[in-house]
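Hey all, sorry for the wall of text incoming. These are the four entities for the joint prediction.
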Amino acid sequence: MIKVGIIGATAYTSLELIKILLRHSEADIVYLGTRREGSNKISDIFPILTNTFDMSCSRLTQKDIPKDMDMVFVTLPPAISMQYVPGFLDVGVKVVDLSADYRFQERSTYEKWYEVKHTDPSGLDVAIYGLPEIFRENIKKTILVANPGCYPTSAIIGLAPLVLKDYVYTDDIIIDAKSGISGRGREHKEETHYCECNENVEAYNVGEHRHTPEIENIISLIGKSEASVCFTPHLVPMNRGILCSIYVKMKKRISDEEIIAIFNGFYSKEPFVRIKTDRKLPKTKDVVDTNFCEIAIRVVDGRVIILSSIDNLIKGASGQAVQNMNIMCGFKETLGLSS
Amino acid sequence: MIKVGIIGATAYTSLELIKILLRHSEADIVYLGTRREGSNKISDIFPILTNTFDMSCSRLTQKDIPKDMDMVFVTLPPAISMQYVPGFLDVGVKVVDLSADYRFQERSTYEKWYEVKHTDPSGLDVAIYGLPEIFRENIKKTILVANPGCYPTSAIIGLAPLVLKDYVYTDDIIIDAKSGISGRGREHKEETHYCECNENVEAYNVGEHRHTPEIENIISLIGKSEASVCFTPHLVPMNRGILCSIYVKMKKRISDEEIIAIFNGFYSKEPFVRIKTDRKLPKTKDVVDTNFCEIAIRVVDGRVIILSSIDNLIKGASGQAVQNMNIMCGFKETLGLSS
Amino acid sequence: MIKVGIIGATAYTSLELIKILLRHSEADIVYLGTRREGSNKISDIFPILTNTFDMSCSRLTQKDIPKDMDMVFVTLPPAISMQYVPGFLDVGVKVVDLSADYRFQERSTYEKWYEVKHTDPSGLDVAIYGLPEIFRENIKKTILVANPGCYPTSAIIGLAPLVLKDYVYTDDIIIDAKSGISGRGREHKEETHYCECNENVEAYNVGEHRHTPEIENIISLIGKSEASVCFTPHLVPMNRGILCSIYVKMKKRISDEEIIAIFNGFYSKEPFVRIKTDRKLPKTKDVVDTNFCEIAIRVVDGRVIILSSIDNLIKGASGQAVQNMNIMCGFKETLGLSS
Amino acid sequence: MIKVGIIGATAYTSLELIKILLRHSEADIVYLGTRREGSNKISDIFPILTNTFDMSCSRLTQKDIPKDMDMVFVTLPPAISMQYVPGFLDVGVKVVDLSADYRFQERSTYEKWYEVKHTDPSGLDVAIYGLPEIFRENIKKTILVANPGCYPTSAIIGLAPLVLKDYVYTDDIIIDAKSGISGRGREHKEETHYCECNENVEAYNVGEHRHTPEIENIISLIGKSEASVCFTPHLVPMNRGILCSIYVKMKKRISDEEIIAIFNGFYSKEPFVRIKTDRKLPKTKDVVDTNFCEIAIRVVDGRVIILSSIDNLIKGASGQAVQNMNIMCGFKETLGLSS
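and here's what came out:
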């Protein structure tokens, strides 16, 4: 049984972390830290936890964090996260960071897109991008995992088999993504008002969403050549779920059946990837509340259309974070994550 | 053609006012006032109006409002509204006030429930409660209409025929109301965050909602005896619409058919009240975007159940406000309001 | 480890049963029966189960059901269920029946409200109404549990403490219930079309819903006098969740604090009942996906308002069914049910 | 005042037609035909029309349709529509057909995609594709308009300026479309069950939606070369609205400003096209209930992203149908269509 802390306990992703860890047979939550003033029990913040998990939150200050834990999940916003992470690493606490602060090998890419100076470059050097389907071996050995963004998780799992096998042009990738509103976070602002979101679909951050370089980086790495991604996220009126519709051009002619076989082969041992067969298509409601990524692939006129869906809060955040913890700690990878 | 202004132009109710007035053959919007800084065109605030109505908003200050209008709709919050209304009345501009500031004949009731001193008692003396179905003759003659609250509109229209004819006990009325989220206003706060409202039903302000005394006052007036109302509002995940489920006890035995006949008789000349027959029940979606109040009545074991539905933003606010304007100005009552 | 079957595997409640039983450490699903033709794997019917639980469904005929199980959950419609239940009881398989077929001690009440002759009166004699908070001791000893209806579960748990202690008049109970659309079942008809349900609230079956006599029966039993309930269900646009707003009159004057103390006392040992304190109110989203019933109580002008919320598919159906199984089999009552 | 009939009165699009025509100062609905048995008043089918428009529907048979009208709107399904249209044309009644039956100049394309023999080839010869922004002059002179599909309307208006001016490659167009559920029609089937649609996003008919050839045909015509379109429609949980996200490659380098200037020029005189400026993006809620098509254009890395939104039931069906009627009859084009 390891001792686990959550740093930034009031985020939507933290509620999911708690729910998963309560089912986890090898991890015990021992600390909940929050920057909010005046909060006390976590079940006051998330009443669904009442009588199930009523632990008190601690006021988070950089100076005074208990370090007697084995592992922490950091769910703080970007730029804040890197102020806390080094302190844990220094005393031997492993970290899964859910912010973007450690996702980029190139510090300059981070600084350009997040418009802030990176204050922990040595952390960048040790951090591993926590997509188990691609980087499992490295995750096993690291003390710091940069948990991937929600859109990149969905997009990269959808693209990896074809990119790795060089079946598609990586300089001409279009990703049209649809996300539930929880992807916008818990902050209340005009964009998250019920009447602004409900009965509405819209694109946002067209051509400038910060997940663009994250996807490009990893696809470049996998494909061993500079990738160029046109990424357009949309908000749809539902709480959670992401569907990425990915359009790529093929280098080689190939049939629907062959391409599905490639995916089935590539992911045959993966516990959380499902490939649709029989011409069925993924629905986000079939992955919500699970750690699965569900994928369908179609060849249409020499183009491949990949439909990849996840729960943005589970496989796109907290579920994957626990999957990473399981790998880092040598646990069975599905612990806490299979319903 | 009369000249009309909207004082508080950025409220959800103001958008509805504008949409209705644009269809109105006898009224011209000439002024839009807002307390917001930095706003300019109304179509920047409500993009749905782009190319249809792009009038500029004026910054609202108490000192400096143009008075060369025939009529203003005031959509400011309670306590603010009464700071502006007297200025218009003084120079002969008629007012329909959509706040609660002029809805109570008893100043003390207002001050108790709204926790603020009333600064315009002389306005209170001239104001008429703007429910045309009950007070049409008085509305015709007044210069100041206090436009009813959304819940009271639905509840009082549902109760009036039985109360007036003394068929029910008015000291034992239960009103269980369900409202769409726009009833909470346009402000963004935790309660109006999409993920807090969506996939959720909840009661709020149980036993202490400010519409309770408003309903009690008018029912007391109609029934000529002190009414006591147990009013419980609920939020349901939709943009607009109100359904009041009203439970009253009968003084006299009566059948479903007789009671429907009473309602049909009472409202036979009303352009905006529909009584359901053939055991059908109202759906809020059938009144949304209309000025109708739709009512079904059932007798069950000596109790009457009244189901009364309106669009909270139309019959519950802006539609009724224009209906009042039509009456005050001698126009056909349905102008701008029939689809 | 006991062997469990689900008879009627394609209902929404069966999906929830499966999800719960997969987490259950003492029960193994060994049989899935369905009356649907041509279906095969349960994960084809509920794709969310793919790779998690891909068991094949068996075509259900009355003649030919495997009986080598310890327990079955019957999720067939009323009138159909009682055709299958006796066969299991005969060979010693315990039954939790989720239909209404065994909920009434008085056969005549069932036959009046369900308009069908009861074909298994001897089953009626042994069946126990499966509300653990009230009938736990009887459930322990029975072989046939009639799992309560969703509305009755929420309503009775909300009423029981005050009824048992004779604090309220049971001949004057008003229950205004709000339910998500899954309460209407999986059948597709005009009433469940997305565009008919979405952005709409409506009452249905006013004065004639079949859960009325079910609630009256149990409240009469608890209160030891004939109860009369005015029950009005409403549909709200969300997938799941029930909120009952219950209005009762008090026999004795009592404060909010005292009444909350009564509830806290009555349910102090219950693992799945939560009483709200600090004037907080229940939200259905805080019980969805849990087996909790969450209750707030308010005294307003000599009347008690009880707000009681559950997940209609969990505490209102499948969660409670597993809770009953746990009790019948001597397992820890919360097995499979605490997140 | 012209006399107008609706052939297929119970479709969702017919309700919208009725609402628009009731506001229309030059058209009078004189006939409502339906193939449904036993229906009578249109307000029984659409209760929102009660007291506003209670006309009786007539049972539709091919033999016996009144022909003393000036114009009919045919809202029957494809393959059925062409059985009724010739009868009207023969006696001089103008037709706007909302089905796909007359949208294809090439009969073979229709027969391939709709899998039915075309029974009215002479109708095909006279029909004009009713997209006023492109074919206004032809619409003026025709007696038969093929009203465009909802997705093609949104897509073609978004593409036309760049295609006509030869700025983009038309053999490499990707259209990722999102639609509300009303786009699936009024029929109740598993796919339109509330609980299947709500809290879900999914793609459907990938690579095989019938609007693909419709878009390709018109773009080929405008661009004067064979177009190839990859069209992927998605369902999102809302009643109405379409957003097309269109990805095209540029033949010439051009800036955001220049491209917006091209759109503004092209559509400068169009009453129902709005081009977003100031880097704002369209929201479907801002065009719902209007006849507007709202468009934003962005240049990202040599690619153009066009976001085009309409109300699928108004500009994508009934609003455009009335716009076509206005053009065919020489009325002001915006009659009945400006709020």
